[in-house]
Design a protein that fits this description.
Layout (H helix, E strand, L loop, with lengths): L9 E11 L10 E2 L3 E17 L2 E18 L4 H8 L19 E9 L4 E11 L18 E8 L8 E5 L7 H5 L22
Antiparallel strand pairs: 1-2, 1-5, 3-4, 4-7, 5-6, 6-7, 6-8
C-alpha cells in the first residue's frame, strides 16, 4: 500500500529515559534524563554456513551483540550515578573501585513530519563509566556534550534487543503509547478485531 512522504520523514530526538533492569529481567520505572543530543546503536550478527554437495545448503545468521553511544547536554551528579551505578553522595558522584554499571533500558522519542512519533526502547544496556572532561573557554562559550558508549544485550524474557513503534501506524496500540515512558513496554502482536484484517 502506497503511503506518503511525510510518514517517512523522521527527525529530532527527545524524552530520553532509562529504567533499571533487575536480576530477574523485570524493569523499574523509567527516569528522565534531560538534554537529548544523539543516540546511535548498531547490532552485529554471527553467521554459520552448512555445506553439502559442494553448495551452501543452510545459513544461520543471528544477532550476537550490540553497541551504541548516547550524547546528552551534560550529566547531573544524580544522572552520572544512575548510569554508572551508585548514588548521589552529598551533591557529588564518587567513582569507587567497586563501581559496577547497572543494566538499564534506554527509551527515547523521535518526531515525524506527519505529526506522529517513533518511540524506541533498547532493553538491556550497560553504559561506560562517565569520565572527566574540562575545556577552557576561548572567545565564545561552548557547551560540553557528554558522550557515553554502551553495550547491548538481549532482555531476559524473550531475547529482544530493541523495539520501535510508529504512533501513526494503523496497527498501533494506543494504550501502549500512552504508557511508553511510565512503564517499559514489550513487543505485542497486532490485535485484530473479529472479522477484521491487520494492515500490512
Amino acid at each position: 500500500m502506497a503511503g506518503t512522504y511525510k510518514e517517512k520523514i523522521v527527525y529530532g530526538l527527545n524524552e530520553i529515559h532509562v529504567a533499571k533492569v533487575a536480576d530477574d529481567g523485570t524493569f523499574g520505572v523509567p527516569v528522565a534524563i534531560l538534554g537529548a543530543k544523539t543516540v546511535e546503536a548498531t547490532f552485529e550478527s554471527s553467521e554459520k554456513k552448512i555445506y553439502a554437495d559442494n553448495n551452501t545448503v543452510y545459513v544461520d545468521k543471528r544477532v550476537s551483540s550490540g553497541k551504541g553511544k548516547l550524547g546528552v547536554l551534560g550529566l547531573t551528579m544524580t544522572e552520572k550515578a544512575l548510569l554508572a551505578g551508585g548514588e548521589n553522595m552529598s551533591g557529588g558522584f564518587a567513582l569507587n573501585k567497586n563501581t559496577n554499571a547497572p543494566n538499564l533500558a534506554l527509551l527515547f522519542s523521535q518526531d515525524k513530519a506527519d505529526g506522529g512519533k517513533i518511540l524506541t526502547v533498547v532493553y538491556n544496556s550497560q553504559f561506560s563509566i562517565p569520565g572527566i572532561n574540562a575545556v577552557t573557554t576561548e572567545e565564545e562559550m561552548e557547551e560540553q556534550i557528554a558522550e557515553i558508549e554502551f553495550t547491548c544485550s538481549p532482555e531476559l524474557a524473550e531475547g529482544y534487543y530493541y523495539y520501535s513503534v510508529d504512533t501513526k501506524d494503523a496497527n498501533i496500540d494506543k494504550t501502549m503509547v500512552e504508557a511508553w515512558f511510565t512503564k517499559v513496554q514489550m513487543p505485542k502482536k497486532t490485535s485484530v478485531p473479529t472479522g477484521a484484517k491487520a494492515v500490512k
